[in-house]
Amino acid sequence: MLNSLKSIDNFINKNKFALIFFSSNNCSVCTVLLPKIEEMMKKYPEIKIKKVLIDEIKEASGKYSIFTVPTILFFIDGKEIIRNGRFISVLELEKKIKKYYKIIKLDLGY
Questions:
Q1: What are the start-end ranges of the H helices in the chain?
Q2: To the nearest 10°, the Cα dihedral for 76, 80, 86, 91?
Q3: CA nearest neighbour of 97 among 33, 18, 36
Q4: CATH code of the domain covering residue 94
Q5: How many domains is the chain partitioned into structurally?
Q6: pTM of the predicted model, to two decimals?
Q7: Which of 2, 34, 68, 97 is exposed most, by the fewest CB atoms within 10 A?
Q8: Contact present, 24 and 69 (Cβ < 8 Å)
Q9: How does pLDDT run along the chain (110 residues), one tens digit per residue?
């Protein structure tokens, strides 16, 4: 879990593929969804995933325009590529991630 704006920024900039799961302490949907997302991410070992509790880092809501939880942001090379909020379909999210993941991996010669 990331616990400061600086750690969020470092995580995004340090990893080629970074997925951040924004949640809150009282979000029951988040509690159910996060393990499903983590399981899906096992197929994509280069994608690093971290959770941010917006209750604990209130500034993150403003900086990253988080208006609801859960919200998932996916970054490639520090740029936000995918944003999903509130009603998140794991299958739809995976389709989007897979598309970008394959393109980048091909460009890198993997």
A1: 5-14, 28-41, 58-63, 90-108
A2: -30
A3: 18
A4: 3.40.30.10
A5: 1
A6: 0.91
A7: 68
A8: yes
A9: 899 999 999 999 999 999 999 999 999 999 999 999 999 999 999 999 999 999 999 999 999 999 999 999 999 999 999 999 988 999 999 999 999 888 877 665 54
Gap between the Cα atoms of 84 and 97, Å rounded: 11
Distance between CA 46 and CA 14 in Å, rounded?
Answer: 12
Q: Crossing angle for the helix pair 90-108 and 28-41, nearest 10 degrees? A: 30
Distance CA 19, CA 27 (A): 19
Residue 69 contacts residue 30 (beta carbons within 8 Å)? yes
